[in-house]
TrEMBL record:
Pfam families membership: Pantoate_transf (PF02548)
One Gene Ontology term of the molecular function aspect: magnesium ion binding
Alphabetical UniProt keywords: Cytoplasm, Magnesium, Metal-binding, Methyltransferase, Pantothenate biosynthesis, Transferase
Origin superkingdom: Bacteria
Protein name (database record): 3-methyl-2-oxobutanoate hydroxymethyltransferase
UniProt entry tagged with the keyword Transcription: no
Record's function text: Catalyzes the reversible reaction in which hydroxymethyl group from 5,10-methylenetetrahydrofolate is transferred onto alpha-ketoisovalerate to form ketopantoate.
Pathway listed: Cofactor biosynthesis; (R)-pantothenate biosynthesis; (R)-pantoate from 3-methyl-2-oxobutanoate: step 1/2
């Protein structure tokens, strides 16, 4: 069916259709997410903790993101492909931001996402023809400031997130992720802006949801309150690998049917 574009994502909010988003980091899983019919695939910098074994997203480089964007591009045919600007690739200057975003677009992204209050960077990317997704609340690249992956915007601190959300919209963001914030605050932000809000740990009142693919598939080490495993991936895969180990050991694989 028809490819999903940035105007499609924006229009989904007006039509009251929830935007379904998931991360992917390579061609294999990008193609699976695409086949499932999700609207948007994010090459998240969560590739750092999820796949590369880093403790946080802080060490993820632009080179890492380009590598995984190229791979995911090869698998995603229909969903909108968005890539994260990693820590350090956009904060220092507007020209860094545009340069990094251009590189992600050349690697196959159709939009970029950046964390935090960087309206000048967003404006400059949009001016250059690059759609930008915002990301507010618990922004993982600032984990050292927060002292952990903690819920943000509790109580009176919520007002400043609402204010920032409005400014991201004014700067030209086409949507924004709201991560680990109280559900009521996420609803207020969603009312305060006209672009789709995409929640993760932000309740049911957002315009759409995003999850880390490996959480959805039950392939993550931990379990999180904001997530749900819709298939027990690790158990399933471990069963398969144990069977393989067994049959090689006992000599029942390969058989003549596997031989030439
Ligand atoms: O990197 C990521 O996976 C993300 C989503 C969780 C929003 O930024
Ligand atoms: Na991210």
């Amino acid at each position: 069916s028809e490819r999903v574009t940035v105007p499609h994502i924006r229009a989904m909010r007006e039509k009251g259709r929830r935007v379904v988003c998931v991360t992917a980091y390579d061609a294999l899983f990008g193609a699976l997410a695409d086949a499932a019919g999700v609207d948007l695939v994010l090459v998240g910098d969560s590739v750092g903790n999820v796949l590369l074994g880093y403790p946080t997203t802080v060490p993820v480089t632009l080179e890492d993101m380009l590598h995984h964007t190229r791979a995911t591009r090869a698998g995603v045919k229909r969903a909108l492909l968005v890539s994260d600007l990693p820590f350090g690739s956009f904060q220092v200057s507007v020209s860094d931001a545009v340069g990094s975003a251009v590189a992600l677009m050349k690697a196959g992204a159709e939009a970029v996402k950046l964390e935090g209050d960087y309206t000048e960077q967003i404006e400059a990317c949009v001016r250059a023809g690059i759609p930008v997704m915002g990301h507010l609340g618990m922004t993982p690249q600032s984990v050292n400031l927060f002292g952990g992956h903690r819920v943000q915007g509790k109580g009176s601190k919520g007002e400043s997130i609402i204010d920032t959300a409005k400014r991201l919209e004014d700067a030209g963001a086409f949507s924004m992720v709201l991560e680990l914030i109280p559900a009521e605050l996420a609803e207020r932000i969603t009312e305060a802006v006209s672009i789709p809000t995409i929640g993760i740990g932000a309740g049911a009142g957002c315009s759409g949801q995003i999850q880390v693919l490996y959480d959805v598939l039950g392939l993550s080490a931990g379990s999180f309150r904001h997530a749900r495993a819709f298939v027990h991936g690790s158990d399933c895969l471990l069963d398969g690998l144990r069977s393989y180990t067994e049959v090689v050991r006992d000599g029942s694989f390969p058989t003549s049917e596997n031989s030439f």
